[in-house]
Amino acid sequence: MAADENEWLTLIEDSLLKSDIGDNSYNAARDWSPSSPLTQSHKLCLSDEHPFKDLKIGNTEDLSYITGRNVCCECGKSRKYYCYSCCIPLEMTKGIIPTLDALPLKVDIVKHKREIDGKSTATHAKVICPSHVRIFIYPELPPNLLDNKEENIVL
Protein backbone atom coordinates (compact mmCIF):
# COMPACT_ATOMS: atom_id res chain seq x y z
CA MET A 1 0.00 0.00 0.00
CA ALA A 2 1.18 3.47 -0.75
CA ALA A 3 1.76 5.84 2.16
CA ASP A 4 -0.99 8.17 0.80
CA GLU A 5 -3.62 5.49 1.32
CA ASN A 6 -3.10 5.59 5.08
CA GLU A 7 -2.81 9.36 5.34
CA TRP A 8 -6.45 9.75 6.40
CA LEU A 9 -5.61 7.94 9.63
CA THR A 10 -3.38 10.80 10.74
CA LEU A 11 -6.41 13.12 10.67
CA ILE A 12 -8.40 11.04 13.15
CA GLU A 13 -8.39 12.03 16.83
CA ASP A 14 -6.09 10.10 19.15
CA SER A 15 -7.48 6.89 20.64
CA LEU A 16 -10.43 6.59 18.24
CA LEU A 17 -8.89 3.62 16.50
CA LYS A 18 -8.41 0.60 18.67
CA SER A 19 -7.77 -2.92 17.56
CA ASP A 20 -7.17 -6.27 19.13
CA ILE A 21 -6.03 -7.91 15.91
CA GLY A 22 -4.41 -11.26 16.67
CA ASP A 23 -1.13 -12.46 15.22
CA ASN A 24 -2.86 -15.00 13.00
CA SER A 25 -5.44 -12.64 11.53
CA TYR A 26 -5.66 -11.52 7.94
CA ASN A 27 -4.09 -8.18 8.89
CA ALA A 28 -0.95 -9.75 10.33
CA ALA A 29 0.98 -9.00 7.12
CA ARG A 30 0.57 -5.22 7.52
CA ASP A 31 3.20 -3.17 9.27
CA TRP A 32 1.85 -2.76 12.79
CA SER A 33 5.28 -2.48 14.39
CA PRO A 34 5.95 0.17 17.04
CA SER A 35 8.13 2.05 14.56
CA SER A 36 5.51 2.19 11.77
CA PRO A 37 4.24 5.69 10.87
CA LEU A 38 0.68 4.84 11.96
CA THR A 39 1.75 3.61 15.37
CA GLN A 40 4.11 6.55 15.86
CA SER A 41 1.29 9.00 15.07
CA HIS A 42 -0.48 7.81 18.26
CA LYS A 43 -3.64 7.49 16.17
CA LEU A 44 -3.54 3.72 16.31
CA CYS A 45 -3.58 1.73 19.53
CA LEU A 46 -3.05 -1.97 18.96
CA SER A 47 -2.17 -3.18 22.40
CA ASP A 48 -1.23 -1.87 25.77
CA GLU A 49 0.16 -3.76 28.70
CA HIS A 50 -1.78 -1.53 31.10
CA PRO A 51 -4.97 -0.41 29.33
CA PHE A 52 -6.62 0.78 32.56
CA LYS A 53 -3.66 2.68 34.02
CA ASP A 54 -5.32 6.10 33.60
CA LEU A 55 -8.73 5.04 34.90
CA LYS A 56 -9.72 5.83 38.46
CA ILE A 57 -11.42 2.58 39.40
CA GLY A 58 -13.17 2.62 42.76
CA ASN A 59 -13.13 -0.10 45.34
CA THR A 60 -15.80 -2.74 44.61
CA GLU A 61 -15.32 -4.71 47.82
CA ASP A 62 -18.68 -3.57 49.24
CA LEU A 63 -20.48 -5.29 46.34
CA SER A 64 -19.05 -8.64 47.43
CA TYR A 65 -21.02 -8.41 50.69
CA ILE A 66 -24.31 -8.42 48.79
CA THR A 67 -25.11 -12.11 48.56
CA GLY A 68 -28.79 -12.21 47.76
CA ARG A 69 -31.16 -10.55 45.38
CA ASN A 70 -33.37 -7.59 46.26
CA VAL A 71 -36.63 -6.19 44.96
CA CYS A 72 -36.63 -3.08 42.77
CA CYS A 73 -38.59 -0.30 44.48
CA GLU A 74 -40.16 0.77 41.17
CA CYS A 75 -41.11 -2.43 39.32
CA GLY A 76 -40.93 -5.01 42.13
CA LYS A 77 -38.69 -7.40 40.19
CA SER A 78 -35.86 -9.34 41.82
CA ARG A 79 -32.39 -8.02 40.94
CA LYS A 80 -28.88 -8.16 42.41
CA TYR A 81 -27.17 -4.74 42.13
CA TYR A 82 -29.36 -2.58 39.88
CA CYS A 83 -32.64 -2.91 38.02
CA TYR A 84 -31.93 -3.27 34.32
CA SER A 85 -35.62 -2.68 33.54
CA CYS A 86 -35.91 0.64 35.41
CA CYS A 87 -32.21 1.58 35.07
CA ILE A 88 -31.80 2.46 38.74
CA PRO A 89 -29.52 1.13 41.50
CA LEU A 90 -31.24 -0.95 44.18
CA GLU A 91 -31.52 0.34 47.76
CA MET A 92 -28.61 -1.88 48.87
CA THR A 93 -26.26 -0.40 46.26
CA LYS A 94 -27.32 3.27 46.13
CA GLY A 95 -24.24 4.36 48.07
CA ILE A 96 -21.93 1.91 46.30
CA ILE A 97 -22.72 2.34 42.60
CA PRO A 98 -21.36 5.71 41.46
CA THR A 99 -23.72 8.22 39.88
CA LEU A 100 -23.06 11.33 37.83
CA ASP A 101 -25.20 14.43 37.47
CA ALA A 102 -23.90 15.05 33.95
CA LEU A 103 -21.65 13.75 31.21
CA PRO A 104 -19.63 15.91 28.80
CA LEU A 105 -22.22 15.02 26.15
CA LYS A 106 -25.70 13.59 25.84
CA VAL A 107 -25.71 9.87 24.97
CA ASP A 108 -28.43 8.18 22.92
CA ILE A 109 -28.09 4.40 22.65
CA VAL A 110 -30.01 2.45 20.02
CA LYS A 111 -30.33 -1.22 20.96
CA HIS A 112 -31.49 -4.15 18.88
CA LYS A 113 -34.97 -5.33 19.90
CA ARG A 114 -33.63 -8.80 20.71
CA GLU A 115 -30.81 -7.55 22.92
CA ILE A 116 -31.47 -8.79 26.44
CA ASP A 117 -31.68 -5.95 28.98
CA GLY A 118 -29.94 -8.01 31.66
CA LYS A 119 -26.96 -8.59 29.35
CA SER A 120 -26.78 -5.11 27.82
CA THR A 121 -24.06 -2.66 28.86
CA ALA A 122 -26.29 0.18 27.66
CA THR A 123 -28.09 -0.10 30.98
CA HIS A 124 -24.89 0.60 32.91
CA ALA A 125 -24.59 4.05 31.36
CA LYS A 126 -28.22 4.86 32.16
CA VAL A 127 -27.86 3.68 35.78
CA ILE A 128 -24.78 5.85 36.32
CA CYS A 129 -26.06 9.00 34.60
CA PRO A 130 -29.80 8.84 33.88
CA SER A 131 -30.11 12.53 33.00
CA HIS A 132 -27.69 12.32 30.05
CA VAL A 133 -28.35 8.82 28.71
CA ARG A 134 -31.37 7.71 26.70
CA ILE A 135 -31.95 4.18 25.41
CA PHE A 136 -33.99 3.51 22.27
CA ILE A 137 -34.99 0.14 20.88
CA TYR A 138 -34.72 -0.13 17.12
CA PRO A 139 -36.67 0.78 14.95
CA GLU A 140 -37.32 3.67 17.36
CA LEU A 141 -34.63 6.32 16.91
CA PRO A 142 -33.79 9.49 18.82
CA PRO A 143 -35.96 12.40 17.66
CA ASN A 144 -34.36 14.51 14.94
CA LEU A 145 -31.42 12.12 14.59
CA LEU A 146 -31.20 12.44 10.84
CA ASP A 147 -32.37 16.01 10.28
CA ASN A 148 -30.63 17.90 13.09
CA LYS A 149 -27.77 19.75 11.43
CA GLU A 150 -26.81 21.94 14.40
CA GLU A 151 -25.69 19.18 16.74
CA ASN A 152 -22.68 16.92 16.49
CA ILE A 153 -23.66 13.30 16.17
CA VAL A 154 -21.22 10.42 16.60
CA LEU A 155 -22.23 6.96 15.48
From TrEMBL:
<dbReference type="InterPro" id="IPR051521">
    <property type="entry name" value="tRNA_Mod/Golgi_Maint"/>
</dbReference>
<protein>
    <submittedName>
        <fullName>DTW domaincontaining protein 1like [Bombus impatiens]</fullName>
    </submittedName>
</protein>
